[in-house]
């Protein structure tokens, strides 16, 4: 038996396929959703509702929202023991597996597990390993929006239909654009925010309570924060039907109260709603379509049940979204259908699912800066983001210096022009015969498959020597503090000796447009930025002014088209 699993930030679900279609598997308490919470008491590990209750009483030995740190080095200390987000997720998956075996009365050895479309390489690998730690064979990881699209039966709609899946879960936000052609359901583009979800809307209410009661977060212990979060969650749910909610929370032995109104809550949520726009705009741009080209909007994730979110989506897309499937269950149901496809069940209409690479994959290169001048640290894309996978792309590179005998291939993932701003996936070194600069050539081939395995092959053209490596089990992640520190270290690369604000602004604008575009437009921006930087290096004010006007005109044209 292969089951489908939605491993969520706030709640997780399992489902299986029956003659009547996909069905949610109830947990041992008879509920469809299992809270993604783990609590440890000595040698005993609790998962789900029990862990959620223990978290309020014993916050130091409990953990939740750990999905946001999948694939990172973050360690959780629970009752004196250390766990990674991957290990905590494996406890949730094992609980779902055991509940499924109890309900189905047969062993469950394999699962299709969903991940946010915008999860990077490290996060996807961590999810797969969590399943294996739970005793599950995980041959297929499916993107949450793709699973949701299947659950809504989008593959049974008329041909040449374009869908936008709007997935706001407990901790992550994804936008995916899919198109149906014959029996092929193709993901055209994905974008998202790994740090935006229902939990952030709950935090808005919590912060309003703290402000109204004159308290600060630092004054509260873990237990009081847990109680406050629970009250804030109840308040958020109440706003579906009520215009206000009286919050009561015992702090330092005294009951504190605050009346939170829906209008005030919605006003404070405007910055969160603004964050939704960027991924939507980015996905439409990458798919090269307009909002008016979208035939149907599909809502997925518990966050989309919020009244203000649904109003916002309807206003943004100028049409009512499809809510025919429970947004909490859509992903698990879709994963179960995918599991049935994998088993080649006769009841399932055969459909070919395509996915895309969510991030650009490339390598670090040296660029020419005038005669006999070179500058290292730049990023050369090889597989662009939103390329349909599996995909294989080859790019050719040359030696830079006379008598150069080695080339280091730095494998990177990201959208910045600068190598150091992207995520490092590994290094591969090859030897080349000593020769004149540019005479020795290597072919770099990246092959990326649907299970997020990246194979890198480097061929030295003159000797025929080939070196390969497969990028897997990487745990490359950076905290916000590390990113901030890195950006400070690299500020000279972006600002250069260009102290004039107008030059800085133009370069940053170019960087933004480079990250937002792909293909020929990206190459054009890269070329224009390099030309401008060459002029800046010469420090001739007249030439800089002329070059600035040329670059501004180009960026204005691209921005207008975008």
Describe the structure.
The chain has 15 helices and 27 strands. The strands form 7 sheets. Strands 1, 2, 3, 4, 10 and 11 form a 6-stranded mixed sheet that branches. 43% of the residues are buried. Helices cover 36% and strands 30% of the residues. Strand 10 (110-115), helix 3 (121-133) and strand 11 form a beta-alpha-beta unit.
Concise synopsis of the structure shown:
With 562 residues, the protein is α+β, with helices and mostly antiparallel strands. Helices cover 36% and strands 30% of the residues. The strands form 7 sheets. Strands 1, 2, 3, 4, 10 and 11 form a 6-stranded mixed sheet that branches. The protein has a 6-stranded mixed sheet with strand order 17-12-13-14-18-21. The chain has a 4-stranded antiparallel sheet with strand order 20-19-23-24, with no helix packed on it.
């Amino acid at each position: 038996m292969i089951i489908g699993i939605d491993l969520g930030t706030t709640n997780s679900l399992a489902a299986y396929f029956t003659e009547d279609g996909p069905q949610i598997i109830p947990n041992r308490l008879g509920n469809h959703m299992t809270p993604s919470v783990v609590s440890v008491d000595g040698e005993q590990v609790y998962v789900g509702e029990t862990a959620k209750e223990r978290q309020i009483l014993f916050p130091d030995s409990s953990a939740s929202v750990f999905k946001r740190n999948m694939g990172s080095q973050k360690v959780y200390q629970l009752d004196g023991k250390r766990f990674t987000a991957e290990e905590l997720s494996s406890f949730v998956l094992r609980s779902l597996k055991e509940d499924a075996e109890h309900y189905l009365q047969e062993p469950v050895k394999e699962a299709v597990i969903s991940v946010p479309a915008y999860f990077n390489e490290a996060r996807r690998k961590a999810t797969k390993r969590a399943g294996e730690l739970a005793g599950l064979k995980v041959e297929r990881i499916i993107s949450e929006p793709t699973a949701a699209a299947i659950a809504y039966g989008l593959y049974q709609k008329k041909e040449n239909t374009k869908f936008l899946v709007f997935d706001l879960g407990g901790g992550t936000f994804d936008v995916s654009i899919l198109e149906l052609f014959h029996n092929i359901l193709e993901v055209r583009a994905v974008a998202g925010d790994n740090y935006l979800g229902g939990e952030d809307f709950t935090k808005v209410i919590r912060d309003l309570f703290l402000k109204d009661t004159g308290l600060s977060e630092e004054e509260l212990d873990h237990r009081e924060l847990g109680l406050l979060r629970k009250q804030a969650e109840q308040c958020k749910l109440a706003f579906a039907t009520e215009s206000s909610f009286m919050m009561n929370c015992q702090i330092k032995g005294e009951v504190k109260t605050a009346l939170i109104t829906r209008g005030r809550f919605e006003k404070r949520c405007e910055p969160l709603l603004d964050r939704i726009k960027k991924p939507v705009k980015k996905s439409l741009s990458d798919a090269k379509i307009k909002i008016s080209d979208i035939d149907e909007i599909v809502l997925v994730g518990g966050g989309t049940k919020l009244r203000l979110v649904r109003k916002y989506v309807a206003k943004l897309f100028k049409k009512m979204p499809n809510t025919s499937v429970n947004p909490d269950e859509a992903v698990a149901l879709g994963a179960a259908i995918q599991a049935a496809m994998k088993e080649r069940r006769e009841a399932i209409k055969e459909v070919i699912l395509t996915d895309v690479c969510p991030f650009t994959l490339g390598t670090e290169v040296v660029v020419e800066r005038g005669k006999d001048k070179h500058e290292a640290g730049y990023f050369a894309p090889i597989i662009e983001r939103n390329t349909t996978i599996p995909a294989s792309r080859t790019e050719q590179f040359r030696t830079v210096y006379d008598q150069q005998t080695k080339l280091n291939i730095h494998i990177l993932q990201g959208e910045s022009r600068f190598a150091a701003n992207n995520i490092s996936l590994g290094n591969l070194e090859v030897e080349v015969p000593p020769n004149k600069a540019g005479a020795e050539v290597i072919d770099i081939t990246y092959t990326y498959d649907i299970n997020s395995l990246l194979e890198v092959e480097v061929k030295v053209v003159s000797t025929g020597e080939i070196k390969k490596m497969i990028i897997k089990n990487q745990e490359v992640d950076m905290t916000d503090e590390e990113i901030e520190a890195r950006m400070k270290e690299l500020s000279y690369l972006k600002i250069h000796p260009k102290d004039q604000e107008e030059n800085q602004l133009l370069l940053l604008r170019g960087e933004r447009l480079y990250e937002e575009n792909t293909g020929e437009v990206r190459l054009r921006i890269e070329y224009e930025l390099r030309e401008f930087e060459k002029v800046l290096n010469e420090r001739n004010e007249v030439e800089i002014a002329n070059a600035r006007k040329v670059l501004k005109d180009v960026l204005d044209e691209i921005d207008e088209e975008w």
